[in-house]
Design brief:
The protein is α/β, with parallel strands linked by helices and 638 residues long. A seven-stranded mixed sheet has the order 4-3-15-14-16-17-18, with helices on both faces. It has a five-stranded parallel sheet with strand order 6-5-7-10-11, with helices on both faces. Helix 1 (8-20) crosses helix 2 (22-30) and helix 16 packs across helix 17. The termini are far apart. The structure holds adenosine-5'-monophosphate-propyl ester.
Length: 638
């Protein structure tokens, strides 16, 4: 079977085959990659206890597939273009040979500093080429990378470094985003104040801003590089297929963010396979994903997927509206981008800036447009299709998660039927089911249910780092034998999926996931705050906005509430980062709780959405009068 499917009929038959003979199906796909030791066993273990293993007796290093393999046929082809924040400064481009050499050199530098296979390395970096280089260098030497999005606060960074027990942090003095410069090294210093595990910090100088360097711990990137022989080879560590490749922290409905673990074997296979099929890239194509490598989209579809396929990938340092809202389209024109992949929130924001910004550019090179991170509303879908794609590019609305490692439900380039706001059909090998809350399978089309995946796939989450129970409880125990996504979905009469959104206490703000519990625990740190409850509401640009209901020791007066709201917001910025700043803070005297003390979020969600009547059965509420009080204040706030 070829890695890349070429027609919708071939899709249908591949899907059938994967159902009847999954082992043979996945073995054929996996054999498109280079193994250090071939596998005999395709899959073992069970979904029930998350003991699934893929290609378990094989050995593979993802970088030999992403880099070395490409040297043979396309060493001089551009692997990575880097487009800087400022359109007037110079970018950088790396051929496969150059990228291989630089990754090798940095891998050697890390090895020389004592980083060993299995050690965790946290990356807290702006979107500069060194981030991709560091990711690949970690994988090369078998270190486990854990990229933390550079918008997270010192506290959030510290929690992740602690949880991963990282021995190294790689960062930059600062990052540039639009007109702003963001100090990063200072945040790392703050995060490491109490830390015991980190031995070294490598610092890339990105701007001319000075930063503090602790000479016993911190090393400049360029000095680390200079300490090695530039052309010395860097042997790819021998990796068992099930050895950890990376940990990526993501929010859940309860407690602290969890470290989602992915492995070399299964992830390589699925990242390469899904990229090849969804984007239908051909030799010579230039693919651009505008995400940040701090999220899973950047891992799989900026770095690994495109390189596994021998493609040319673009990394962009800046933001869509700098220096003006035409920037994305300027980049598409400049590099003659063939596949463009972005998030609905960016599409909506740019749509609001006016068509003239997109109409100015020649976008005739575009062939496939992608969407990811949240449901795309029909209006944004049509604008993207017509204004950006000139009605000739299919839109692949890709549904997936940090935990799935790669795209699960999506069109495949122009092969699949399209329907606005529908992710469509699953990739071959992926078998979604909808269930009711009792776990009964919903067989009929046209109904809504909880989205589960009925069969294992190579890049499924292996564990939540350091807490396997949590992994089981979240994903595998709710519906035994299935992976539970946390999303609600609907299947239309033709079996196409439309993913509606989270059914748990996770909010999706501009395509970024936050647990309500996480935001509440930050809010509750505010002096004078007793309790809070956070819900999402529909937001024109961000998809969902954050509405926080906050109870204070003493109900703040009108003038006090401004200060209090600022303080509460400050705590969220401190605990998580600006990206999780509540859009609305509403002070309340009480929350709608049941007699057993459970907050009825359903009511709070309804109020935040501006719907103020008919709250259904409120007879179980301890004090139904709090609802009137909340509605009253919400009417004034919204
Ligand atoms: O609710 C779904 C939404 O994003 C969640 C996963 O978030 P995260 O792990 O941060 O990964 C985002 C990028 C893969 C999902 O549970 N989501 C993602 N893509 C879509 C989506 N919802 C609807 N349609 C999509 N295409």
């Amino acid at each position: 079977m070829p890695l890349q499917i070429e027609s919708f009929e071939a899709y249908r038959s591949a899907q059938k085959k994967s159902k009847h003979n999954p082992e043979q199906f996945w073995a054929e796909i996996a054999n498109h990659f280079d193994w250090q030791r071939p596998f005999k066993e395709v899959h073992s273990g069970k979904m029930e206890d998350a003991s699934t293993r893929w290609f378990g007796d094989g050995q593979i290093n993802i970088t030999e597939n992403a880099l070395d393999r490409n040297l043979r046929e396309r060493g001089d082809q551009i692997a990575l273009h880097w487009e800087p924040n400022d359109p007037n400064s110079e970018g950088q481009s790396f051929t496969y040979s150059e990228l291989h050499r630089t990754v090798s050199q940095f891998g050697n530098a890390m090895r020389a500093m004592g980083v060993k296979k299995g050690e965790r390395v946290v990356l807290y970096m702006p979107m500069v080429p060194e981030l991709a280089i560091a990711v690949l260098a970690c994988a090369r030497i078998g270190a486990v990378h854990s990229v933390v999005f550079a918008g997270f606060s010192a506290q959030a960074l510290s929690d992740r470094i602690e949880d991963a027990q990282a021995s190294m942090v790689i960062t930059a003095n600062a990052g540039r985003r639009g007109a702003k410069t963001i100090p990063l090294k200072a945040t790392v210093d703050e995060a490491l104040k109490e830390n015991q595990s980190v031995q070294n910090v490598i610092v890339k100088s990105v701007t001319s801003d000075p930063c503090f360097m602790d000479t016993s711990r911190d090393v400049w990137w360029k000095d680390a590089m200079l300490s090695t022989e530039p052309l010395a080879p860097c042997s790819a560590e021998i990796m068992d297929a099930e050895d950890m490749l990376f940990i990526l922290y993501t929010s859940g409905s309860t407690g602290k963010p969890k470290g989602v673990v992915h492995t070399h074997g299964g992830y390589t296979v699925y990242a390469g396979y899904s990229f090849a099929n969804v984007f239908q890239c051909q030799p010579g194509d230039v693919y651009w994903c505008s995400a940040d490598i701090g999220w899973i989209t950047g891992h799989t579809y900026i770095v690994y997927g495109p390189l596994l396929q021998g493609g040319t990938t673009i990394m962009f340092e800046g933001i869509p509206t700098f220096p003006d809202p035409g920037r994305y389209w300027a980049i598409c024109e400049k590099y003659k981008v063939t596949q463009f992949y972005t998030a609905p929130t960016a599409i909506r924001a740019l749509m609001a800036c006016g068509d003239e910004h997109v109409e100015r550019y020649d976008l005739s090179s575009l062939r496939v447009l992608g969407s990811v991170g949240e449901p795309i509303n029909e209006e944004a879908w049509h604008w993207y299709h017509e204004k950006v794609g000139h009605s000739k590019c299919p839109i692949v609305d890709t549904w997936w998660q940090t935990e799935t490692g790669g795209i699960m439900i999506s069109g495949l380039g122009n092969l699949s039927p399209q329907k606005p706001a529908h992710a469509g059909y699953p990739l071959p090998g992926i078998h979604p089911v909808l269930v009711d809350p009792e776990g009964n399978t919903i067989k009929d089309n046209g109904k809504e249910g909880l989205l589960c995946i009925a069969a294992p796939w190579p890049s499924m989450i292996r564990t939540t780092y350091g807490d396997h129970e949590r992994c089981l409880n979240t994903y595998f125990r709710p519906f035994p034998g299935r992976y539970f996504t946390g999303d609600g979905a609907k299947r239309d009469e033709n079996g196409m999926y439309r993913v509606i959104g989270r059914v748990d206490d996770v909010i999706n703000v501009s395509g970024h996931r936050f647990g309500t519990a996480e935001i509440e625990s930050a809010l509750n740190q505010t002096p004078g705050v007793i309790e809070s409850a956070v819900v999402g509401y529909e937001h024109e640009i961000k998809g969902q906005g954050i509405h926080a209901y906050v109870i204070c020791e003493q109900f703040p007066s009108e003038s006090e509430s401004i200060e209090m709201a600022k303080a509460a917001e400050g705590q969220v910025i401190l605990g998580i980062g600006k990206i999780a700043r509540p859009d609305r803070i509403q002070f309340v005297a009480g929350l709608p709780k049941t007699r057993s003390g459970k907050i009825m979020r359903r009511i709070l969600r309804k109020i935040a959405s501006g719907d103020f009547d008919q709250f259904g059965d409120t007879s179980t509420l301890l004090d139904p009068s709090v609802v009137d009080e909340i509605v009253d204040k919400a009417k004034r706030l919204i």
